[in-house]
Protein backbone atom coordinates (compact mmCIF):
# COMPACT_ATOMS: atom_id res chain seq x y z
CA UNK A 1 0.00 0.00 0.00
CA UNK A 2 1.29 3.46 -0.83
CA UNK A 3 2.50 5.45 2.15
CA UNK A 4 0.48 8.54 3.01
CA UNK A 5 2.20 11.83 3.78
CA UNK A 6 1.50 11.24 7.49
CA UNK A 7 3.12 7.79 7.32
CA UNK A 8 6.20 9.26 5.72
CA UNK A 9 6.54 12.18 8.13
CA UNK A 10 6.16 9.83 11.09
CA UNK A 11 9.19 7.86 9.94
CA UNK A 12 11.45 10.93 10.10
CA UNK A 13 13.77 11.65 13.02
CA UNK A 14 16.02 14.63 12.51
CA UNK A 15 18.73 15.45 15.01
CA UNK A 16 21.85 17.57 15.39
CA UNK A 17 24.93 16.00 16.90
CA UNK A 18 26.99 18.26 19.14
CA UNK A 19 30.25 17.76 20.97
CA UNK A 20 33.52 19.28 21.97
CA UNK A 21 36.19 18.52 19.33
CA UNK A 22 37.55 15.00 19.82
CA UNK A 23 34.76 13.75 22.09
CA UNK A 24 33.81 11.24 19.40
CA UNK A 25 31.04 12.86 17.34
CA UNK A 26 32.41 11.58 14.05
CA UNK A 27 33.04 8.10 15.41
CA UNK A 28 29.46 7.83 16.66
CA UNK A 29 28.04 9.21 13.43
CA UNK A 30 30.03 6.58 11.62
CA UNK A 31 28.62 3.82 13.83
CA UNK A 32 25.11 5.07 13.19
CA UNK A 33 25.72 5.05 9.47
CA UNK A 34 27.10 1.52 9.73
CA UNK A 35 23.94 0.29 11.50
CA UNK A 36 21.84 1.80 8.77
CA UNK A 37 23.97 0.24 6.06
CA UNK A 38 24.74 3.70 4.68
CA UNK A 39 28.46 2.88 4.77
CA UNK A 40 30.20 -0.45 4.77
CA UNK A 41 33.40 0.36 6.53
CA UNK A 42 34.42 2.49 9.48
CA UNK A 43 36.67 5.33 8.35
CA UNK A 44 34.39 6.42 5.53
CA UNK A 45 33.18 9.51 7.29
CA UNK A 46 36.57 10.51 8.52
CA UNK A 47 39.86 8.76 8.31
CA UNK A 48 42.49 11.03 9.73
CA UNK A 49 45.14 8.40 9.37
CA UNK A 50 44.27 7.41 5.84
CA UNK A 51 44.03 11.08 4.90
CA UNK A 52 40.53 10.47 3.57
CA UNK A 53 38.10 13.16 4.54
CA UNK A 54 34.40 13.19 4.06
CA UNK A 55 32.33 16.27 3.51
CA UNK A 56 32.13 17.12 7.19
CA UNK A 57 35.84 17.83 7.02
CA UNK A 58 36.14 19.24 3.57
CA UNK A 59 37.87 22.43 4.42
CA UNK A 60 41.63 22.68 4.61
CA UNK A 61 41.50 24.69 7.79
CA UNK A 62 39.43 21.93 9.35
CA UNK A 63 41.99 19.34 8.38
CA UNK A 64 44.85 21.42 9.73
CA UNK A 65 43.22 22.09 13.04
CA UNK A 66 41.27 18.87 13.38
CA UNK A 67 38.07 20.77 13.99
CA UNK A 68 34.89 20.87 12.07
CA UNK A 69 33.93 24.41 11.09
CA UNK A 70 30.88 23.72 9.00
CA UNK A 71 27.83 21.57 9.45
CA UNK A 72 26.86 18.80 7.10
CA UNK A 73 23.90 16.53 6.70
CA UNK A 74 23.70 12.76 6.49
CA UNK A 75 20.78 10.39 6.30
CA UNK A 76 20.42 6.81 7.28
CA UNK A 77 17.60 4.26 7.20
CA UNK A 78 17.13 2.33 10.40
CA UNK A 79 14.30 0.09 11.56
CA UNK A 80 11.85 1.50 9.03
CA UNK A 81 12.81 5.07 9.92
CA UNK A 82 14.73 7.70 8.04
CA UNK A 83 17.14 9.38 10.41
CA UNK A 84 18.63 12.70 9.35
CA UNK A 85 21.84 13.57 11.16
CA UNK A 86 23.08 17.15 11.06
CA UNK A 87 26.69 17.54 12.04
CA UNK A 88 27.63 20.79 13.79
CA UNK A 89 30.90 22.66 14.18
CA UNK A 90 32.57 21.31 17.27
CA UNK A 91 33.87 24.65 18.44
CA UNK A 92 32.07 27.26 20.48
CA UNK A 93 33.32 30.08 18.25
CA UNK A 94 30.74 28.75 15.81
CA UNK A 95 27.85 28.64 18.29
CA UNK A 96 25.72 30.75 15.98
CA UNK A 97 26.05 28.25 13.16
CA UNK A 98 25.22 25.48 15.62
CA UNK A 99 22.14 27.34 16.79
CA UNK A 100 20.87 27.75 13.23
CA UNK A 101 21.33 24.03 12.72
CA UNK A 102 19.38 23.41 15.93
CA UNK A 103 16.50 25.39 14.42
CA UNK A 104 16.34 22.81 11.63
CA UNK A 105 16.15 19.71 13.83
CA UNK A 106 13.66 18.14 16.21
CA UNK A 107 16.15 16.83 18.76
CA UNK A 108 19.85 16.97 19.62
CA UNK A 109 22.46 14.43 20.66
CA UNK A 110 25.32 15.64 22.87
CA UNK A 111 28.48 13.60 22.96
CA UNK A 112 30.69 13.97 26.02
CA UNK A 113 34.14 12.49 26.60
CA UNK A 114 33.98 10.56 29.90
CA UNK A 115 37.54 11.57 30.66
CA UNK A 116 36.85 15.27 30.29
CA UNK A 117 33.21 15.93 31.06
CA UNK A 118 31.85 19.28 29.98
CA UNK A 119 34.95 21.21 29.07
CA UNK A 120 34.82 24.93 29.92
CA UNK A 121 35.06 26.03 26.32
CA UNK A 122 32.10 23.83 25.39
CA UNK A 123 29.65 25.21 27.92
CA UNK A 124 28.37 27.86 25.55
CA UNK A 125 27.83 25.31 22.80
CA UNK A 126 25.78 23.01 25.00
CA UNK A 127 23.87 25.90 26.52
CA UNK A 128 22.80 26.89 23.04
CA UNK A 129 21.35 23.43 22.75
CA UNK A 130 19.43 23.89 25.98
CA UNK A 131 18.12 27.33 24.91
CA UNK A 132 16.40 25.81 21.90
CA UNK A 133 14.09 23.74 24.13
CA UNK A 134 14.18 20.53 22.09
CA UNK A 135 14.80 17.03 23.48
CA UNK A 136 18.49 16.48 24.24
CA UNK A 137 20.01 13.00 24.39
CA UNK A 138 23.42 12.59 25.99
CA UNK A 139 26.01 9.97 25.08
CA UNK A 140 28.97 9.72 27.45
CA UNK A 141 31.74 8.24 25.37
CA UNK A 142 35.11 6.51 25.67
CA UNK A 143 34.24 4.16 28.53
CA UNK A 144 36.98 1.85 27.22
CA UNK A 145 39.39 4.40 28.74
CA UNK A 146 39.74 5.39 32.35
CA UNK A 147 37.57 8.43 32.83
CA UNK A 148 35.86 10.42 35.54
CA UNK A 149 33.36 9.03 38.01
CA UNK A 150 29.96 8.64 36.32
CA UNK A 151 28.19 10.32 39.28
CA UNK A 152 30.46 13.37 38.90
CA UNK A 153 29.77 13.54 35.20
CA UNK A 154 26.01 13.46 35.75
CA UNK A 155 26.23 16.13 38.47
CA UNK A 156 28.31 18.36 36.21
CA UNK A 157 25.90 17.92 33.32
CA UNK A 158 22.98 18.97 35.50
CA UNK A 159 24.77 21.91 37.02
CA UNK A 160 26.36 23.39 33.92
CA UNK A 161 23.41 22.97 31.59
CA UNK A 162 20.74 23.52 34.21
CA UNK A 163 19.03 20.39 32.99
CA UNK A 164 17.90 17.26 34.84
CA UNK A 165 19.57 14.03 33.80
CA UNK A 166 18.23 10.49 33.80
CA UNK A 167 20.75 7.68 33.24
CA UNK A 168 19.20 5.15 30.89
CA UNK A 169 22.11 2.87 31.62
CA UNK A 170 25.09 2.81 33.95
CA UNK A 171 28.68 1.77 33.26
CA UNK A 172 30.09 -1.30 34.93
CA UNK A 173 33.71 -0.22 35.38
CA UNK A 174 35.79 1.64 32.85
CA UNK A 175 39.08 1.42 30.98
CA UNK A 176 40.62 -2.05 31.22
CA UNK A 177 37.94 -3.00 33.73
CA UNK A 178 35.01 -1.97 31.57
CA UNK A 179 32.61 -4.93 31.73
CA UNK A 180 29.65 -3.36 30.00
CA UNK A 181 26.54 -1.44 30.94
CA UNK A 182 23.83 -2.01 33.45
CA UNK A 183 20.90 -1.18 31.19
CA UNK A 184 18.19 0.40 33.35
CA UNK A 185 15.86 1.18 30.45
CA UNK A 186 15.91 -2.33 28.97
CA UNK A 187 16.19 -4.10 32.31
CA UNK A 188 19.26 -6.09 31.36
CA UNK A 189 23.03 -6.13 31.49
CA UNK A 190 24.95 -5.69 28.25
CA UNK A 191 28.43 -7.17 28.19
CA UNK A 192 31.60 -6.06 26.45
CA UNK A 193 33.03 -9.58 26.57
CA UNK A 194 30.05 -11.87 26.14
CA UNK A 195 32.25 -14.93 25.54
CA UNK A 196 33.18 -14.86 29.24
CA UNK A 197 29.52 -15.35 30.04
CA UNK A 198 28.61 -18.11 27.65
CA UNK A 199 28.40 -15.88 24.59
CA UNK A 200 25.50 -13.94 26.03
CA UNK A 201 25.49 -10.31 24.92
CA UNK A 202 22.59 -9.53 27.17
CA UNK A 203 21.67 -10.95 30.56
CA UNK A 204 18.13 -10.20 31.83
CA UNK A 205 17.54 -8.82 35.33
CA UNK A 206 15.03 -9.96 37.92
CA UNK A 207 12.68 -7.61 39.74
CA UNK A 208 15.35 -6.80 42.34
CA UNK A 209 17.70 -5.74 39.57
CA UNK A 210 20.00 -8.78 39.84
CA UNK A 211 21.16 -10.87 36.88
CA UNK A 212 19.01 -13.97 36.44
CA UNK A 213 21.28 -17.05 36.55
CA UNK A 214 24.86 -17.76 37.56
CA UNK A 215 27.53 -16.15 35.44
CA UNK A 216 31.13 -15.17 36.21
CA UNK A 217 30.13 -11.51 36.21
CA UNK A 218 27.80 -11.93 39.18
CA UNK A 219 30.90 -12.53 41.31
CA UNK A 220 32.47 -9.25 40.21
CA UNK A 221 32.59 -6.29 42.61
CA UNK A 222 32.36 -4.00 39.56
CA UNK A 223 28.92 -5.42 38.81
CA UNK A 224 27.75 -5.18 42.43
CA UNK A 225 29.05 -1.60 42.61
CA UNK A 226 27.06 -0.67 39.48
CA UNK A 227 23.96 -2.29 41.00
CA UNK A 228 24.40 -0.24 44.17
CA UNK A 229 24.86 2.96 42.16
CA UNK A 230 21.65 2.26 40.28
CA UNK A 231 19.82 1.63 43.53
CA UNK A 232 21.02 4.98 44.78
CA UNK A 233 19.93 6.65 41.55
CA UNK A 234 16.51 5.08 41.90
CA UNK A 235 16.13 6.56 45.34
CA UNK A 236 17.81 9.91 45.00
CA UNK A 237 17.89 10.59 41.25
CA UNK A 238 15.33 12.21 38.97
CA UNK A 239 12.32 10.14 38.01
CA UNK A 240 11.93 9.14 34.38
CA UNK A 241 9.58 11.67 32.80
CA UNK A 242 8.72 11.46 29.11
CA UNK A 243 7.13 14.88 29.03
CA UNK A 244 10.23 16.48 30.57
CA UNK A 245 12.34 14.79 27.86
CA UNK A 246 10.03 16.15 25.15
CA UNK A 247 10.37 19.68 26.59
CA UNK A 248 14.15 19.49 26.79
CA UNK A 249 14.09 19.68 30.60
CA UNK A 250 15.43 16.19 31.24
CA UNK A 251 18.16 14.52 29.23
CA UNK A 252 18.34 10.73 28.98
CA UNK A 253 21.99 9.74 29.45
CA UNK A 254 23.69 6.76 27.83
CA UNK A 255 27.18 5.39 28.38
CA UNK A 256 29.32 3.61 25.81
CA UNK A 257 32.39 3.47 23.67
CA UNK A 258 31.93 4.61 20.10
CA UNK A 259 35.33 3.37 19.02
CA UNK A 260 34.53 -0.22 19.88
CA UNK A 261 30.89 0.29 18.87
CA UNK A 262 29.76 -0.63 22.35
CA UNK A 263 26.48 0.88 23.52
CA UNK A 264 25.80 2.81 20.34
CA UNK A 265 23.03 0.56 19.05
CA UNK A 266 21.45 0.41 22.50
CA UNK A 267 21.50 4.20 22.47
CA UNK A 268 20.02 4.34 18.97
CA UNK A 269 17.19 1.94 19.85
CA UNK A 270 16.19 4.01 22.87
CA UNK A 271 16.66 7.25 20.97
CA UNK A 272 14.07 6.27 18.37
CA UNK A 273 11.62 5.40 21.15
CA UNK A 274 11.68 8.96 22.47
CA UNK A 275 12.93 11.28 19.76
CA UNK A 276 10.06 13.21 18.23
CA UNK A 277 9.05 13.11 14.59
CA UNK A 278 8.76 16.50 12.86
CA UNK A 279 6.45 18.72 14.86
CA UNK A 280 4.37 21.78 13.98
CA UNK A 281 6.41 24.90 13.20
CA UNK A 282 5.58 28.46 14.14
CA UNK A 283 4.83 30.81 11.26
CA UNK A 284 3.56 34.38 11.19
CA UNK A 285 0.26 32.92 10.04
CA UNK A 286 0.01 30.47 12.97
CA UNK A 287 1.23 26.92 13.54
CA UNK A 288 1.95 24.82 10.49
CA UNK A 289 1.38 21.09 10.92
CA UNK A 290 3.84 19.04 8.82
CA UNK A 291 1.07 16.99 7.27
CA UNK A 292 -1.73 19.55 7.23
CA UNK A 293 -0.69 21.02 3.96
CA UNK A 294 -0.09 19.28 0.69
CA UNK A 295 1.95 22.29 -0.41
CA UNK A 296 5.65 22.27 0.19
CA UNK A 297 7.11 24.73 2.72
CA UNK A 298 10.54 25.04 4.26
CA UNK A 299 13.25 27.46 5.30
CA UNK A 300 16.92 27.98 4.59
CA UNK A 301 19.08 27.54 7.69
CA UNK A 302 22.47 27.34 6.11
CA UNK A 303 24.28 28.41 2.97
CA UNK A 304 27.61 26.98 2.03
CA UNK A 305 29.62 28.31 -0.87
CA UNK A 306 32.44 26.47 -2.56
CA UNK A 307 31.89 23.08 -0.97
CA UNK A 308 33.30 21.80 -4.16
CA UNK A 309 36.02 24.34 -5.09
CA UNK A 310 36.31 22.85 -8.57
CA UNK A 311 32.73 23.86 -9.33
CA UNK A 312 32.40 27.00 -7.23
CA UNK A 313 28.97 25.88 -6.17
CA UNK A 314 26.75 27.43 -3.56
CA UNK A 315 24.33 25.23 -1.71
CA UNK A 316 21.41 26.44 0.37
CA UNK A 317 20.22 23.88 2.92
CA UNK A 318 16.46 23.80 3.29
CA UNK A 319 14.59 22.13 6.13
CA UNK A 320 11.26 20.91 4.82
CA UNK A 321 8.42 21.75 7.19
CA UNK A 322 5.32 20.56 5.32
CA UNK A 323 4.12 19.01 2.08
CA UNK A 324 6.16 16.82 -0.20
CA UNK A 325 9.08 17.79 -2.36
CA UNK A 326 9.16 16.54 -5.93
CA UNK A 327 11.74 17.60 -8.50
CA UNK A 328 10.67 20.61 -10.53
CA UNK A 329 8.26 22.01 -7.92
CA UNK A 330 7.68 25.78 -8.14
CA UNK A 331 8.08 27.78 -4.94
CA UNK A 332 8.03 31.43 -3.93
CA UNK A 333 10.80 33.03 -1.87
CA UNK A 334 8.81 34.90 0.75
CA UNK A 335 11.37 37.70 1.24
CA UNK A 336 11.54 38.74 -2.41
CA UNK A 337 8.36 37.29 -3.87
CA UNK A 338 10.54 35.72 -6.56
CA UNK A 339 9.48 32.36 -8.05
CA UNK A 340 11.94 29.50 -8.12
CA UNK A 341 11.79 26.07 -9.75
CA UNK A 342 13.48 23.50 -7.53
CA UNK A 343 14.97 21.22 -10.12
CA UNK A 344 18.65 21.14 -9.23
CA UNK A 345 18.74 19.70 -5.72
CA UNK A 346 20.89 17.34 -3.73
CA UNK A 347 20.71 15.19 -0.67
CA UNK A 348 23.72 14.03 1.22
CA UNK A 349 24.72 10.46 1.73
CA UNK A 350 27.69 9.33 3.78
CA UNK A 351 30.22 9.66 1.02
CA UNK A 352 28.28 10.91 -1.98
CA UNK A 353 25.54 13.24 -3.09
CA UNK A 354 22.39 12.28 -4.91
CA UNK A 355 19.65 14.30 -6.51
CA UNK A 356 16.49 14.29 -4.42
CA UNK A 357 13.51 12.37 -5.73
CA UNK A 358 11.17 12.88 -2.82
CA UNK A 359 11.39 14.53 0.59
CA UNK A 360 8.96 15.42 3.38
CA UNK A 361 8.92 17.35 6.67
CA UNK A 362 12.08 16.70 8.67
CA UNK A 363 14.21 16.15 5.59
CA UNK A 364 17.00 18.46 4.56
CA UNK A 365 17.63 19.11 0.92
CA UNK A 366 20.42 21.08 -0.71
CA UNK A 367 19.44 23.62 -3.36
CA UNK A 368 22.05 24.79 -5.84
CA UNK A 369 21.71 28.53 -5.55
CA UNK A 370 22.87 31.30 -7.83
CA UNK A 371 22.45 34.05 -5.27
CA UNK A 372 18.66 34.17 -4.84
CA UNK A 373 18.56 32.76 -1.34
CA UNK A 374 19.61 33.98 2.09
CA UNK A 375 19.75 32.35 5.49
CA UNK A 376 16.33 32.50 7.12
CA UNK A 377 14.38 32.61 3.84
CA UNK A 378 11.01 30.88 3.78
CA UNK A 379 10.09 29.00 0.61
CA UNK A 380 6.50 27.98 -0.12
CA UNK A 381 4.53 26.33 -2.86
CA UNK A 382 1.11 27.59 -3.95
CA UNK A 383 -0.63 30.88 -3.34
CA UNK A 384 -0.92 30.93 0.46
CA UNK A 385 1.90 33.03 1.82
CA UNK A 386 3.92 31.49 4.65
CA UNK A 387 6.69 32.94 6.77
CA UNK A 388 8.53 30.96 9.40
CA UNK A 389 9.85 32.68 12.52
CA UNK A 390 13.14 34.49 12.01
CA UNK A 391 16.38 32.66 12.69
CA UNK A 392 18.04 34.35 15.64
CA UNK A 393 21.29 36.21 15.18
CA UNK A 394 23.88 36.31 17.93
CA UNK A 395 25.25 39.62 19.12
CA UNK A 396 28.89 39.64 18.00
CA UNK A 397 31.46 40.39 20.66
CA UNK A 398 34.71 40.69 18.74
CA UNK A 399 35.45 43.17 15.97
CA UNK A 400 38.08 43.59 13.31
CA UNK A 401 38.68 46.23 10.65
CA UNK A 402 39.26 44.68 7.27
CA UNK A 403 40.75 46.10 4.06
CA UNK A 404 41.97 44.44 0.86
CA UNK A 405 45.76 44.28 0.61
CA UNK A 406 45.76 44.82 -3.09
CA UNK A 407 43.54 47.68 -4.27
CA UNK A 408 43.59 46.21 -7.76
CA UNK A 409 41.68 43.21 -6.45
CA UNK A 410 38.79 45.07 -4.83
CA UNK A 411 36.23 43.22 -6.94
CA UNK A 412 37.07 39.78 -5.58
CA UNK A 413 37.28 41.27 -2.06
CA UNK A 414 33.73 42.65 -2.30
CA UNK A 415 32.39 39.45 -3.86
CA UNK A 416 34.01 37.25 -1.23
CA UNK A 417 32.93 39.39 1.68
CA UNK A 418 29.36 39.56 0.40
CA UNK A 419 29.09 35.80 -0.07
CA UNK A 420 30.68 34.87 3.24
CA UNK A 421 28.44 37.32 5.08
CA UNK A 422 25.37 35.88 3.34
CA UNK A 423 26.49 32.44 4.47
CA UNK A 424 26.34 33.73 8.03
CA UNK A 425 30.04 32.92 8.46
CA UNK A 426 30.63 36.38 9.92
CA UNK A 427 28.77 39.68 10.38
CA UNK A 428 29.56 42.85 8.49
CA UNK A 429 29.32 46.47 9.62
CA UNK A 430 30.37 49.76 8.07
CA UNK A 431 31.31 52.93 9.93
CA UNK A 432 28.61 55.51 9.38
CA UNK A 433 30.46 58.17 7.46
CA UNK A 434 33.64 56.64 6.15
CA UNK A 435 32.09 53.27 5.25
CA UNK A 436 35.09 51.33 6.53
CA UNK A 437 34.45 47.60 6.74
CA UNK A 438 34.24 46.09 10.21
CA UNK A 439 33.71 42.39 10.81
CA UNK A 440 31.86 41.17 13.88
CA UNK A 441 32.19 37.66 15.27
CA UNK A 442 31.11 35.58 18.23
CA UNK A 443 34.52 33.87 18.38
CA UNK A 444 38.06 34.54 17.19
CA UNK A 445 38.19 31.48 14.93
CA UNK A 446 35.50 32.98 12.73
CA UNK A 447 37.99 35.70 11.67
CA UNK A 448 40.64 33.14 10.87
CA UNK A 449 38.26 31.09 8.78
CA UNK A 450 37.07 34.25 7.03
CA UNK A 451 40.61 35.34 6.15
CA UNK A 452 41.57 31.85 5.04
CA UNK A 453 38.52 31.41 2.85
CA UNK A 454 38.78 34.86 1.30
CA UNK A 455 42.28 34.02 0.18
CA UNK A 456 41.63 30.45 -0.91
CA UNK A 457 38.25 30.81 -2.51
CA UNK A 458 38.28 34.41 -3.75
CA UNK A 459 42.00 35.01 -4.13
CA UNK A 460 41.75 38.12 -1.98
CA UNK A 461 44.39 38.86 0.61
CA UNK A 462 43.27 41.15 3.42
CA UNK A 463 44.68 43.23 6.24
CA UNK A 464 42.86 42.71 9.50
CA UNK A 465 43.19 45.19 12.37
CA UNK A 466 41.80 43.94 15.69
CA UNK A 467 39.45 46.31 17.48
CA UNK A 468 39.05 43.98 20.46
CA UNK A 469 35.78 43.25 22.14
CA UNK A 470 32.91 45.71 21.94
CA UNK A 471 29.30 45.77 22.98
CA UNK A 472 27.03 46.04 19.95
CA UNK A 473 23.62 47.66 20.48
CA UNK A 474 21.05 48.53 17.86
CA UNK A 475 18.89 51.66 17.91
CA UNK A 476 15.75 52.69 16.03
CA UNK A 477 16.26 54.71 12.86
CA UNK A 478 14.17 57.58 14.27
CA UNK A 479 16.46 57.90 17.32
CA UNK A 480 19.47 58.35 15.11
CA UNK A 481 21.61 61.46 15.48
CA UNK A 482 25.03 61.13 13.87
CA UNK A 483 26.52 63.47 16.47
CA UNK A 484 26.02 60.75 19.06
CA UNK A 485 28.98 58.86 17.57
CA UNK A 486 32.41 58.99 19.19
CA UNK A 487 35.45 56.75 19.43
CA UNK A 488 34.01 55.14 22.57
CA UNK A 489 30.62 54.56 20.99
CA UNK A 490 31.22 54.15 17.31
CA UNK A 491 28.18 54.50 15.09
CA UNK A 492 27.96 51.89 12.33
CA UNK A 493 25.45 50.36 9.93
CA UNK A 494 24.78 46.65 9.82
CA UNK A 495 24.43 44.92 6.47
CA UNK A 496 20.76 45.85 6.29
CA UNK A 497 21.71 49.51 6.95
CA UNK A 498 20.27 49.46 10.48
CA UNK A 499 22.10 51.81 12.87
CA UNK A 500 24.20 50.09 15.54
CA UNK A 501 26.62 51.42 18.16
CA UNK A 502 29.82 49.61 19.07
CA UNK A 503 30.52 50.55 22.69
CA UNK A 504 34.04 50.30 24.02
CA UNK A 505 32.88 48.76 27.30
CA UNK A 506 30.03 48.69 29.83
CA UNK A 507 31.13 52.01 31.24
CA UNK A 508 30.85 53.72 27.84
CA UNK A 509 27.42 52.20 27.35
CA UNK A 510 26.17 53.41 30.73
CA UNK A 511 27.51 56.88 30.04
CA UNK A 512 25.58 56.88 26.75
CA UNK A 513 22.38 55.65 28.42
CA UNK A 514 22.61 58.47 30.98
CA UNK A 515 23.21 61.06 28.29
CA UNK A 516 20.48 59.83 25.92
CA UNK A 517 17.85 58.25 28.18
CA UNK A 518 15.22 58.38 25.40
CA UNK A 519 17.27 56.13 23.07
CA UNK A 520 16.49 52.46 23.53
CA UNK A 521 19.45 50.12 22.99
CA UNK A 522 18.71 46.62 21.71
CA UNK A 523 20.90 43.54 21.52
CA UNK A 524 20.48 40.39 19.44
CA UNK A 525 20.44 36.91 21.00
P1 LIG B 1 35.01 14.47 17.03
O1 LIG B 1 34.31 14.18 15.75
O2 LIG B 1 34.06 14.72 18.17
O3 LIG B 1 36.05 15.51 16.93
O4 LIG B 1 35.77 13.14 17.50
P2 LIG B 1 36.23 11.87 16.67
O5 LIG B 1 35.09 10.97 16.43
O6 LIG B 1 37.05 12.30 15.52
O7 LIG B 1 37.15 11.18 17.75
C1 LIG B 1 38.31 11.82 18.26
C2 LIG B 1 39.33 10.79 18.69
O8 LIG B 1 38.79 10.02 19.74
C3 LIG B 1 39.71 9.82 17.59
O9 LIG B 1 41.05 9.42 17.79
C4 LIG B 1 38.81 8.64 17.86
O10 LIG B 1 39.31 7.44 17.36
C5 LIG B 1 38.79 8.65 19.38
N1 LIG B 1 37.58 8.02 19.94
C6 LIG B 1 36.28 8.21 19.58
N2 LIG B 1 35.47 7.44 20.33
C7 LIG B 1 36.26 6.76 21.17
C8 LIG B 1 36.01 5.78 22.18
O11 LIG B 1 34.89 5.38 22.45
N3 LIG B 1 37.10 5.31 22.85
C9 LIG B 1 38.38 5.73 22.58
N4 LIG B 1 39.36 5.19 23.27
N5 LIG B 1 38.65 6.63 21.62
C10 LIG B 1 37.61 7.14 20.93
P3 LIG B 1 42.27 10.07 17.04
O12 LIG B 1 43.45 9.24 17.33
O13 LIG B 1 42.36 11.52 17.35
O14 LIG B 1 41.81 10.02 15.56
P4 LIG B 1 41.95 8.85 14.50
O15 LIG B 1 43.30 9.05 13.94
O16 LIG B 1 41.77 7.57 15.24
O17 LIG B 1 40.85 9.14 13.53
Automatic annotation (TrEMBL):
Superkingdom in the source lineage: Bacteria
Binding site for GTP: 19-26, 87-91, 141-144
Entry keyword set: Cytoplasm, GTP-binding, Nucleotide-binding, Protein biosynthesis
Subcellular location per the Swiss-Prot or TrEMBL entry: Cytoplasm
PROSITE patterns in UniProt: G_TR_1, G_TR_2
GO molecular function, one term: GTP binding
Alphabetical GO biological process terms: regulation of translational termination
GO cellular component term of the entry, any: cytosol
Keyword Transmembrane among UniProt keywords: no
Domain Tr-type G: 10-279
InterPro entries xrefs: EF-G-like_DII, EFG_III/V, G_TR_CS, P-loop_NTPase, PrfC, RF3_C, RF3_dom_3_sf, RF3_GTP-bd
CDD domains: RF3
Principal place of residence: cytoplasm
Plastid among keywords: no
Gene3D superfamilies given in the database record: P-loop containing nucleotide triphosphate hydrolases, Peptide chain release factor 3, domain III, Translation factors
Physiological role: Increases the formation of ribosomal termination complexes and stimulates activities of RF-1 and RF-2. It binds guanine nucleotides and has strong preference for UGA stop codons. It may interact directly with the ribosome. The stimulation of RF-1 and RF-2 is significantly reduced by GTP and GDP, but not by GMP.
Assigned protein family: Belongs to the TRAFAC class translation factor GTPase superfamily. Classic translation factor GTPase family. PrfC subfamily.
UniProt name for this protein: Peptide chain release factor 3
Organism: Jeotgalibaca porci
Gene (name only): prfC
